[in-house]
């Protein structure tokens, strides 16, 4: 195989290693250089006079960041809170809720294991029952997902964890229909939108999910440690931040107390959140047509990459195109030795990196007794990179 495959015309905005074909934006995102420079400026301002910064300068910047992410997601800013990551947002909700023994919580078996673990922990504590919904990887259409999840609802179902885009299998779920159907049956939805903002169109006001936990540090390309939890108005009294801090004892009107409790969990670096408005505008200005064009471009590139990957693996595309956003996965094999969940790094993942300089996840998913290879399509990726991946797969397997 020849030289390194070309990244896209946008790649210079990122400081990614030119020797690596980076096809895993999905795991931790990647932040453009200009956004990191903006963060450095903010940190310098903070450290030049920390008290002045926290008492005065941070306040309007924080509000601007809350307004910016709320506007991007068409969400009520009064229910918007910042979190370090989506896992933290999911935990804040689950660890605040009270369940009766025998109450049921729905978890589809494509759910992110960390969030599933949080449900296991809470269910064990309250004696609640976890109802795992098995969803095949190969699907004819998304209605199958809706049917399977709705079939699991009983009179005891209190909550469902629903992904916008699943992590191990990179499937864009019909979350709009699911939120609506579940909530109309009296089941609150905790939407895991870790892959949400910047990868699928999200309109939180129309969705009206009880809780939405999402990341900015993945597809909005903000610095690491910037995420949000949106809590619907009628649920705000029930949900506390994971870190109980000064706000808890503050004698304030309800909304001010809510803000104080979530906005001050203790001293922390606020710069990842304060970069949200800058990052949203910066990426919007990078591509003609702004964010809608970014979503479309990345999705088309993911479909292009998925089809090449399928050809190389001799597989049919596993889902209809409508279930692909900027991530796409294909199953590889269920070799019991390499499907050991304790075997943290899959040999194919290692050899694609060591022999070809391709960074792409290959992971076992014991719930499906198989392994998946999952590609990402971000602005810095170019078509040649997926051709190179396909060639590498043909050679390796
Ligand atoms: C579906 C899903 N949920 C939650 C998370 C957790 O995100 P974080 O590590 O930022 O909390 C991820 C991370 O990849 C994910 O894919």
In short:
With 397 residues, the chain is of the alpha/beta class. 41% of the residues lie in helices and 14% in strands.
How would you sum up this structure, described in words?
With 397 residues, the chain is an alpha/beta fold. It folds into two domains: 11-23 and 287-396, Aspartate Aminotransferase, domain 1 (Alpha-Beta Complex), CATH 3.90.1150.10; 38-280, 3-Layer(aba) Sandwich (Aspartate Aminotransferase, domain 2). The protein is 41% helix and 14% strand. The chain contains 14 helices and twelve strands. The strands form three sheets. The protein has a seven-stranded mixed beta sheet with strand order 2-8-7-6-5-3-4, sandwiched between helices. It has a three-stranded antiparallel beta sheet with strand order 9-12-11, covered by helices on one side. A two-stranded parallel sheet has the order 1-10. α5 (113-126) links the parallel β3 and β4. Bound molecules: pyridoxal-5'-phosphate. The site of pyridoxal-5'-phosphate has 14 residues, from α4 and α5.
């Amino acid at each position: 195989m020849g030289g390194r495959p070309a990244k896209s015309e946008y790649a210079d905005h990122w400081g990614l290693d030119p020797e690596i074909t980076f096809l895993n934006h999905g795991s931790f995102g990647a932040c453009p250089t200009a956004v990191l420079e903006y963060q450095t400026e903010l940190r310098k301002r903070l450290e030049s006079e920390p008290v002045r910064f926290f008492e005065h300068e941070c306040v309007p910047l924080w509000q601007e960041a809350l307004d910016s992410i709320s506007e991007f997601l068409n969400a009520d800013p009064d229910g918007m809170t910042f979190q370090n990551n989506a896992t933290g947002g999911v935990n804040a909700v689950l660890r605040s809720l009270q369940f009766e023994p025998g109450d049921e919580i729905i978890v589809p078996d494509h759910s992110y294991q960390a969030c599933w673990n949080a449900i296991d922990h809470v269910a064990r504590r309250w004696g609640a029952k976890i109802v795992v919904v098995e969803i095949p990887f190969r699907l004819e259409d998304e209605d199958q997902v809706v049917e399977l999840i709705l079939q699991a609802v009983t009179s005891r179902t209190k909550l469902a964890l629903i992904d916008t885009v699943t992590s191990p299998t990179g499937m864009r779920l019909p979350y709009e229909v699911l939120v609506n159907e579940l909530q109309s049956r009296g089941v609150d939805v905790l939407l895991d939108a870790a892959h949400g903002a910047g990868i699928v169109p999200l309109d939180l006001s129309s969705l009206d999910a009880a809780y939405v936990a999402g990341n900015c540090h993945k597809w909005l390309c903000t610095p690491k440690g910037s995420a949000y939890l949106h809590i619907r108005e009628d649920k705000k009294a029930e949900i506390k931040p994971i870190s109980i801090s000064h706000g808890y004892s503050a004698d304030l009107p309800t909304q001010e107390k809510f803000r104080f409790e979530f906005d001050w969990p203790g001293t922390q670096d606020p710069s990842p959140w304060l970069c949200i408005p800058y990052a949203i505008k910066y990426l919007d200005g990078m591509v003609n047509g702004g964010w809608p064009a970014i979503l479309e471009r990345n999705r088309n590139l993911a479909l292009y990459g998925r089809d090449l990957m399928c050809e190389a693996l001799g597989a049919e595309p596993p889902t209809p195109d409508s279930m692909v956003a900027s991530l796409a996965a294909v199953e590889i094999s269920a070799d019991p030795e390499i499907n050991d969940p304790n075997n943290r790094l899959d040999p194919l993942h290692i050899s694609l990196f060591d022999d070809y300089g391709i960074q792409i996840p290959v992971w076992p998913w014991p719930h499906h007794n198989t392994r998946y290879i999952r590609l990402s399509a971000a602005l810095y990726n170019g078509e040649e990179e997926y051709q190179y991946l396909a060639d590498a797969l043909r050679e390796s397997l």
